[in-house]
Each structure stands twice: as structure tokens, then as C-alpha cells.
Design a protein that fits this description.
alpha+beta; globular
Length: about 160
């Protein structure tokens, strides 16, 4: 029996073109596998008409971090009203890139979590041959109530 997972767009506060995770493939306590499809159309918008294009390393890291955020939100009892802020990353190694027609498969693990931070580790693979394109030793996100950054109206 296949398990249904929520749509990443329903959990993360992003839409196209900022959302870089298409679906959650697997979720177990403390671990998640999330997928991003890389398309020619998308590469054209980032790279112009240069082909064969590769998905930029910065966007691969962004997609990986969004997968980390999805893991926190999936496991949070109070996901609504939570704001995740990227804090830092250590031991980031870019080993390649996914091309058009491939899937980026992010395998993320929750290393530690408290009320204010969550720490992750993991890898991203290209589906074509399963090669690792990104390794992240440690990524830290800050968890804040959504209203904690202040009211933008009052700052004007």
C-alpha cells in the first residue's frame, strides 16, 4: 500500500519559480526523501539557451534545504505558523550536477532538533545513474513563529 504525502507547495511558503521540491517520495521519523524534476524549460530560464545545461549548484543546495524544511514541517505538531530560516551549512561538497530530464533525489536526515533549531545531514543524487551531486555534512535551520520578524506594515 503506498503512502500519500502532502504536496510540498502546501507546506512551504513558496510557489513557482521559488519552490524547488516537487514531491515527497518517502518519509520516516527523522528522515525524508524528496524529489525535484529538472526540466529543459527551467534550465533555459536560468541559463539562457546554453545546452546541455546543468542545474546550478546554488539551486541544488536550495532544493536540498527545502527538503530539510519539509522534514521539520512534516514532524512538527504546530507546522502552521512556523517560519524556517536557513542558518548555516558546513561540509558542503558539490560533486556534479543534474541535467534536464533527471530527478534530483534529496535524502535528508534530522540530526538534532530543539524548539529553536534543527540540524540536518544528507546527500542529493541525480536519478540518471544515482551519482551523488551534493553532500551536506551539516545544515542548520532556525525555527521561529511566523510573526516573529515583525509587521512589514509597521516598518514602512
Amino acid at each position: 500500500m503506498s503512502q500519500t504525502h502532502p504536496d510540498p507547495g502546501d507546506l512551504l511558503p513558496y510557489g513557482y519559480p521559488a519552490l524547488h521540491v516537487d514531491r515527497i517520495a518517502r518519509h520516516t521519523p527523522g528522515a525524508m526523501e524528496a524529489v525535484k524534476a529538472v526540466t529543459y524549460h527551467e534550465l533555459d530560464s536560468h541559463l539562457g539557451t546554453a545546452r546541455p545545461g546543468r542545474f546550478p549548484a546554488t539551486l541544488t543546495l536550495e532544493s536540498f534545504l527545502q527538503a530539510c524544511g519539509l522534514l521539520v514541517l512534516q514532524e512538527s505538531e504546530e507546522a502552521d505558523g512556523q517560519l524556517l530560516i536557513f542558518g548555516s551549512a558546513r561540509g558542503v561538497r558539490v560533486l556534479g550536477a543534474a541535467g534536464a530530464g533527471e530527478l534530483l533525489v534529496h535524502s535528508v536526515e534530522l540530526v538534532d532538533r530543539d524548539e529553536e533549531t534543527a540540524t540536518f545531514t544528507g546527500v542529493s543524487r541525480a536519478s540518471g545513474d544515482g551519482r551523488i551531486v551534493l553532500e551536506v555534512e551539516r545544515a542548520i535551520t532556525l525555527i521561529r513563529p511566523a510573526g516573529s520578524l515583525g509587521d512589514p506594515e509597521s516598518a514602512a
